[in-house]
Amino acid sequence: MRDDIKINDRAAAIGHKLIEKLETVYDPEIELDIYNLGLIYAIDLDEDGHCRFLMTFTDTNCGCEDTMPAEIVEKLCQIDEIASVSVEITWSPVWKITRISRYGRIALGISPR
């Protein structure tokens, strides 16, 4: 799991499953998945299987603001340990290009450093 995502122990225990699902949710304008794009700020999984997901978007006028949270809920609910998901959107801190992973930078043709 990325170091810049706040994650509790329960969610960290299924981190590989979370990453696998999140890498299939793409920002349609940038054509990179939300995990490598750095849109995820926090993942918290409670003992009842409820996953609280905190994220942002690259811009306040993102066209996927209505559809992406529903796609995240759909994908994460496919994980056995997750019973329900709530997606919260925040604009603070503001997303910056420095949040893109090394893989994401290479995929977008940006210097990986």
TrEMBL record:
* Source superkingdom: Bacteria
Please list the residue ranges annotated as the MIP18 family-like domain: 20-88
InterPro entries, per database record: Fe-S_Maturation_MIP18, FSCA_dom_sf, MIP18-like
Query: SUPFAM superfamilies, from UniProt?
Result: Fe-S cluster assembly (FSCA) domain-like
Quote the Gene3D superfamilies the UniProt record gives: Fe-S cluster assembly (FSCA)
Q: Name one Pfam family in it.
A: FeS_assembly_P
Q: What is this protein called?
A: Aromatic ring hydroxylase
